[in-house]
Every structure is written in structure tokens, then in C-alpha cells.
Amino acid sequence: MSNTSMASYEEDGISTASTTDSGALLNVTSSNTESTETDIAILLIFKDPSTVYWVFNVIVTAIGLIGNCMVFALMREVKFSLLSYPVYLKFLAVSDSAVLITSCIHESLRLFKSFYLMFTSLAFCNVWRVIRFIVGLLSPWLLVGLTLDRFFCVVFPLKRDLFCTPRKASVVCFCLTCVSVALMLPLLSDVKVVKGPQDETCVTGDKLVSYYVFLRLLFTSLLPCLLILVFTVMIIIRIKRSATFRKRFTSTSSGSTDRAQDKSLRPLMLISLLAFVTLLPSTISESVILILMIFKLHFKTLFFLKDLWMPFNILYLINFGQNFYILVSSSTNYRKIMKRKLNCANVPKRNENIPVATSSVNVSDISKDVTQSCTALS
After folding, report:
1. Do residues 25 and 204 lie in contact, with contact meaning Cβ atoms separated by under 8 Å?
2. Which of 88, 310, 331, 370 could form a cystine bridge with 146, CB 3.0-4.6 A?
3. Distance, CA of 47 to CA of 158 (rounded, Å)
């Protein structure tokens, strides 16, 4: 689960418990004693975040934001201007930064019970909630676009110049953004306020809970992870086959060129693979928790998942700030570019008033020498 939960339990027998994952609401409202156990279970699992968890959240956010800013500096290199994958990385840097910032703010408000500072207006609370949904949906699909772009480059190298261009990459990113917005806009139409013991916030209304759960489980988690895994495995298989073919039939010079191209793919493949690894635990735990809560089953399993939720959520957030560090740690080329940029920024400006030595040349002497040389040749 990516984010927030909230529950309130009143001793007079009337209880209201609600949970949100990236703002989604799974409500349990009851005045009967039959649902008391369910309310207590949800309260225990989605209690306020601990201080240690919040500190880790802030650290991951800060390191991730620094890395995302450095992605822009790295991708501004002239040699990347005609390539398609820097476009995906730039869009990812913006979307991932939005996920980290909104998550850190939300968890801080939860810890200090200060939702009222931002959510006094129901309209603002609703817009904030949907923005978090949109960026949470967009980032995994941008990774799918990046993986698919590399897939075309490897599997269809002769058509690379046709499909893998900066212009087409920008079109794909804009289309993914528009689709994410379109899918989440219906959530603006159904919102309600949930009051806790000391605070209150807005959550998805009862009518659209199932719709959000469907989007969260299928389109935000399971389907992107599956596509990333499939395309990555196919790329790896194709690269291995190409390497075997080169050893048998190609010369040393062409083989070295192809190996250099394979090395350039390595950082991007690591980004896709590590994204899959960091998203998968959160996806599995979230799916189980949401299903158990919908059907009110296996409270013992919910208690067990409670202990796993916080580290899984931190691992989930790491995905949104790791791209730059993967690039520079897995590629000598990217490290050289960053060193050069940092060195250029630290080199002091030279004094422009340095005297330049000049020498005078007698034009008549030069013409005389040229005439003598031509006479000697004739």
C-alpha cells in the first residue's frame, strides 16, 4: 500500500473505521456489535505512523528529490538530444517527485494530526486527493513506456529511427498523462469527510470505492508490473541471443560496437527491473489487504500484514527516487558526464584581460618567398 489510512473507534458501540490507500477509502460503518472486531482490526493495522517510519519517509523523499533534479542535469547533455529515453526519464522525474512530495506531506499531516491545516476546504481536499491518485497512476505507466521503448530498440533495430524518437516519446508521455487524468476525474464527483478522534479529512465516497480499488489494483500495480516484467525478460533474451550470434559470425570491430550498445541498455534495464522489485511487495500486500477488508475475512492475516506495511511502503517510495542513482552507479559514461558538469560548475572564471602575445608579419617578404619557390619549381 502506498499511503494513508485512518480509523476511529468510539467506546459507545458506534464506530466508524476507514482506510485509504493513496487516498482510497474502504469504509466500514456499523452500529452493531458484529462489526466491532472488524473496526478494531482496521484501527490496529492503520494506526498513525510511527516517528521512525516518518523519519525514513522524509529521508527517502529528500534523497529522491535530489536524484530527480540531477536527472534533468544529466539528460541535458547534447548527445542525448536525439534519443527517446531521456524524454521518459524527464517525465518520470517530475511525476516521481510529485509522488514523493505529496506522500511526505500527507504522512506528516497524519503523524501530527494536522489535516485541518490544509483540508479546511472540501474542494481543495478533493483536488489534492485526486492529484495524488493521478501521479500514483502515471509513474508506473511511464516506466512501462520506457521499457517498451527499449524493447523496440532491441527487437526492431532497423525501425528504431521510426519508433524511438524524442517526438514520439513526448506524444506517448502526454497521452499517458491524459489517460491518467481521465481515469481519475470521476473520483472528483464522490467525496465525503471522515472525522477522527482529533482530526478529519476527505476520502472517496461509498459509490466509487469499488471503482478506485479496481484502478489501484489493476492499472496502478498489477498490470504495469506484469508488462515491465514481460518486456524486460524479452529484452534480456534477445540480447543474449544477439551476443551468441556475434561470437560466431561477426568481426571484432562490429562485436565491440554491439557490446557498447548492450552496455548502454544496462542502466535502463536496471531501472525497469528495480521498479518491478520495489512495486511488487506493495502490490501483493495491498491486494491481500484490500480483498480481506472488502470481504471482512482472516483478521489474523491482517494483523500479520500490519507489521509488513510500513517497510513495504518505504520500499515503494524508493522506486520514485532511484533512477538517477541507478544511472550513475551502473554506467561509466553517466558518471563521466556528471563529473564534467560538476567540475565545470566549480571551475572559477578565468581572467579575460590576459595579454596575448602578437607578432608582426611583413607581407612583402612572404610574397617574395612564394615567387622564389615558384621559380625554382618551374
Report:
1. yes
2. 88
3. 55
- The region, left, alpha or beta by phi > 0 then psi within -120 to 50, assigned to residue 22 is left
pLDDT tens-place string over residues 308-365: 778 888 989 998 999 999 889 888 888 888 888 888 766 554 444 434 334 344 444 4
**Cα 49 from Cα 61, distance rounded (Å):** 16
Q: Residue 337's Cα: distance from chain center in Å?
A: 22
Burial 23-47 (b: 16+ CB within 10 A, else e): bbbbbbebeeeebeebbebbbebbe
The C-alpha cell of 194 is what? 471522515
At 287 the pLDDT is 67
Q: What DSSP assignment string belongs to 13-67?
A: S-EEEEE-STT--EEEEESSGGGHHHHHHHHHHT-PPPHHHHHHHHHHHHHHHHH
In terms of Cα–Cα distance, which of 151, 93, 167 is closest to 326?
93
Buried b (16+ CB within 10 A) or exposed e, 72-104: eebbebeebeebbbbbbbbbbbbbbbbbbbbbb
User: Cβ contacts of residue 273 below 8 Å, gap of 6+?
Assistant: 228, 232
How many residues make up the chain in this entry?
378
Cell match 527491473: residue? Answer: 273
Residue 24 phi, psi (nearest 5): -75, 150
User: 248-252, 267-271, 283-287, 359-363: which range is least confident on average?
Assistant: 359-363
**CA-to-CA separations, 366 to 107, 371, 378, in angstroms, rounded:** 80, 9, 19
Owner of C-alpha cell 516519446: 169
Taking the C-alpha atoms of residue 293 and residue 49, their distance in angstroms, rounded to an integer, is: 20
Nearest to 138 by CA among 95, 75, 83: 95
Q: Give this prediction's pTM.
A: 0.75
Closest CA to 142 of 81, 95, 101: 95
Q: Which domains does the chain have, with CATH numbers?
A: 5-346 (1.20.1070.10)
Dig out the grid coordinates for 207 from the structure: 459509490
Please choose, from the candidates 142, 25, 146, 37, the residue with its C-alpha nearest in 3D space to the C-alpha of residue 92: 142
Q: CA distances (Å), 42 to each of 20, 37, 156, 220, 287, in order? A: 11, 9, 50, 23, 15
